[in-house]
Amino acid sequence: MTLQILVSFFESVADTDGQSNRAYLYCRERRDVKRDVAYFEKSLIPLLTSPGALNNNFRLNSFFLKEIGRFIDDFGSGVESDISPEDFNAMPDGRKLLELHLRRDKFGNDLFDDRDSLEFHLRNVGAFEKLKQTSPLLEKYLRDWGYLIENSFLDRVKKSAVIVWSNAKSLFSNYRYFRLALTQRNSAYVFYGLLIALFLFLAIFIPFKWNSYSENKLVEFNERVEETKEAIGR
């Protein structure tokens, strides 16, 4: 990857006298696709986004993505400004990553502020949430670019509580449905697990509260005894 990018840049930018042409031709002959931009898009980007690429070194991965994007932007067709969400979703994952990088490099990092932008529509339909599930690398890029909607711990707890409460209401709303649900292994495990947890909680909570109540009553009784002794002594 390093050699292919290096010789392609040198041949296109710095080789004014043609002396490096032999090295470039040697590297190009080892390609499945001869044209530079097409080779970068069809071979290097999938290689860059393959599992375990570059020993999972994100900084090195990001460096190569920027260099590949810079070459394609200089010597390729560049960014398609009118790409639709449907066209984007039809792309391979590596191409999606490259397209997002090229758009950030050309249009800036605040594309979410534009309600007509591709990024705004993709985030609203949850495309980035689906894309992050395809690989840890893509999730790292999306998180680093701020393309994922981050929920706080309390928000996740509230969301889980709402789901549990909704399922519980549905479960106990009808006796036949409740009886049918208990025949399912997972539902039965959850129901009886909750019952066991409830009984364990009550087995600890009730004696604790009773002891606390008894201690308070004992303290009140001792206080009254002392008050009575003082009254008699007077």
Q: What's the overall geometry?
A: elongated
- Range of strand content: under 5%
Contiguous uncertain segments of 5+ residues: none
Helix segment tally: 12
According to DSSP, the number of beta strands is 0
Kindly state the mean pLDDT as a whole number?
Answer: 82
N→C terminal distance: 100 Å
Please trace the helix and strand order, writing H or E for each element: HHHHHHHHHHHH
Structural class: mainly alpha
Domain tally: 2
What is the share of helical residues? over 70%
- Biggest sheet, in brief? none
- Determine Rg (CA atoms, Å): 33 Å
Task: Give an overview in words.
The chain folds into two domains: 144 residues, no CATH class; 81 residues, no CATH class. 74% of the residues lie in helices and 0% in strands. By secondary structure, the chain is mainly alpha-helical. The model has no long low-confidence stretch (mean pLDDT 82).
Give structural attributes:
0% strand; 12 helices; 2 domains; mainly alpha; 234 residues; 74% helix; single chain
Q: What would you say about this model in short?
A:
By secondary structure, the protein is mainly alpha-helical. Helix content is 74%, strand content 0%.
Helix and strand arrangement:
Elements: H1 2-14, H2 21-29, H3 36-48, H4 58-75, H5 85-89, H6 93-107, H7 118-124, H8 127-132, H9 136-145, H10 153-172, H11 175-182, H12 185-233
Helix pairs in contact: 1-2, 1-4, 3-4, 3-6
